[in-house]
Design a protein that fits this description.
The complex is a heterodimer of chains A (about 550) and B (about 190).
Chain A (H helix, E strand, L loop, with lengths): L2 H7 L12 H32 L7 H36 L6 H25 L20 H30 L10 H9 L1 H9 L13 H35 L11 H36 L6 H15 L15 H31 L8 H23 L2 H7 L3 H31 L8 H27 L14 H29 L1 H6 L15
Chain B lengths: L6 H30 L9 H25 L2 H7 L7 E8 L2 E3 L5 E4 L3 E8 L4 E6 L5 E7 L6 E5 L4 E6 L12 E9 L4
Parallel strand pairs in B: 1-4, 3-9
Antiparallel strand pairs in B: 1-2, 4-7, 5-6, 5-8, 8-9
Amino acid sequence: MSFVQTLIGGNKGSFKPESLTPMQKLTLRYVVVGLVYYAFAAIEGMIMRIYQVKPISFIPPKQYFGILTAHPLVGIFGSTYMLVFGAFLFLVPMLLKKPLWSFKLANWTWGLITVGTFTFWLDGFISHYAPLYTLYWPLPADFNVFHPLSGAIFITGIALIMVGTLLFVLNIFKTITYTPDGAAPVNGKLMLLDSLGFTGLFNLFRGRRRNQEEDYLTPLPIVAIARGTVDTLFNALIITGTGVLILIYMIAELMGHSLRTSAIDALLYKNWFWWGLDLIADGLVLIYVAGVWYLLAMLITGKKLFMQKWARAALALEMVVSWTVWSHHLLSDQSQPAILKVVSGEMVTAFELITTGLAFFITLATLWSARPLKMTNPLKFLIGGLLGFALAIPAGIMQADVGLNRILHNTQWIIGPHVHVAILVGLTMTLYSVVYFLLPILTNGAELWSQKLANLHFWLHLLGGIGMGGFMGMAGLHGMLRRTIYYNGEYEGYMWLAALSGSLLLIALGVFLFNIVMTLGLRGAIGVFKKSDLDARELLPQ
Amino acid sequence: MKSAVDSNTVLWGQTIIYTAYVLAIMALMAWFAYNIVRTGPSKIKPAVFYAFVAFLVTTGVSLHIITYNTIPWTKVDLHGKNTPTAQQFEITVADHKFQLPSERLDVQCGKLVEFNVISKDLTYGFGLFRSDNSMVFQMQVIPGHDNIIKWNFLKNEVLSIRSTEYSGPEGSQMIVKDAVHVTGCTK
């Protein structure tokens, strides 16, 4: 086949979108939109990297901070939520061997997150509403800095995403607990208790033991998805509540009734907000990732998970830990009680080293038990993802220390070796592993166009992600702050190196997207968005 | 607070420890990736797992014990609410500007100094930076609350104040150059 033929028709014409079930198409739509928004975030990230080398004259500071505000939100909600929700809406029915509870709701989730992300992104682009992801009170409602209308539109976009998220949560729990038509009855209450870990907790007091995996009602990856989804629910409620609060101030201002910003206690708000926000960073991300590692390890090896009972216990512990770690974000707040700083900020946070460390070890041990393995794309990206979290979690534990936080808080150390290495190397490489694994399943056997490009994608992404995080961290250790602009080239050397590493990430994405387009073909990519004539209850074609 | 350890010393220590860790974990993962595709022993004893759990617990706990006992400002941060100070400075922040009690703040070396930073509107940050842009310390400044930090300066130097928290696009201009002068150190 010629290049043009492959570009239009896909690799060897093996991808036939008309053969896909509605569930396959929907999942692929989640993947496509998730990758498009990842490209948004990556391009925005690259602009900011260049800006940190030298401020770009045609991008005014207001626009820069607009980008800085949109960048993490597009990355988290538009890309990561989209990819993770799409994968789980497909995997939960697959693992439980029953149809998704509501295909229609899954479509709504996709649509709401797609539209919501674009709404706040466009609003930030046009109006420069930029209170940043951390929304410290009363900045988001300070109308000397931002216009209330642009804030109201921004919050509306986030609200759409949160509604979509709540529909996802409902769909996941209903799928776990419902009985499909004509199937043997499922005890939904028991399934729910088992997936959330209550059965294990009750058994501790009853003195019962479950030694076989068959003794559990729900498979281990479902347990991880269920427990991560609890954090997703809490987070959505907190973000929605925060949005409503800010919206009240904005609407009042628009109607000519200015509310005193001091009506909210800034420290209380900060605690409330970080409690909710940490349910993503220190909650659902770590729980979902652990579940995905376990699932991939079992699927790649075809073996049972090493130390399964510990894995289940660690998932339960991680859920509880995620509810109690928020104070590590307030170690530099002098009015925050010292007891909260030490117990929540330091001690409970240190448990994340343990829970993530357990998931890391269990995954590696499971893979090791099946050696020799073939170095497939899912395996190599999984190893990359494991390395990413192995680098990023200790960096986070170091900054969650009263003494070290005094000289690390809000520096590039936080956002480089911790946040970006965790997200780009740890999380994104794990998601790439899932994408490479699911690609043949979702496309009914489409063959990847180029393995060489897949290898190039791996190395560019790995080196770019670690390099960028590393050089940002070095700048941070020399005092470079995040969320600011340096006009006099103070950290130019480090920022050049970080920008070069960032460009590797962008090239890696380009290589990956090109390989996928050549695999599916432009006709195939368009076909994903056409309606399927097959039964929506079928996961894969019969 | 008689130790000569300052932020540069602590950050050098952190750089060395974290770099050594990064090299070790990368080498481990490279070794794993190299060997996972080769035949060889594949059984891992549960004892190895339990030893790893013990290692994680020890590491997580010992980090805070070590920093508590070696980083000089930690104890004052946690328990120094009533510790008397030799000098006190009250600084106000409003409308993205620092208002200092005097144009230049003269600080005595080796004495505990208190900075009380009061915000009249937004959440800001308050950090002191050396001439090479490295950080001495920072804290958050939130409206409606006391934002007090007590610090012992150990070197004669001239420091700049900078807001360390985003407070809108104007926040990156919140710098007061050469505002704090530390004098009186003999070494």
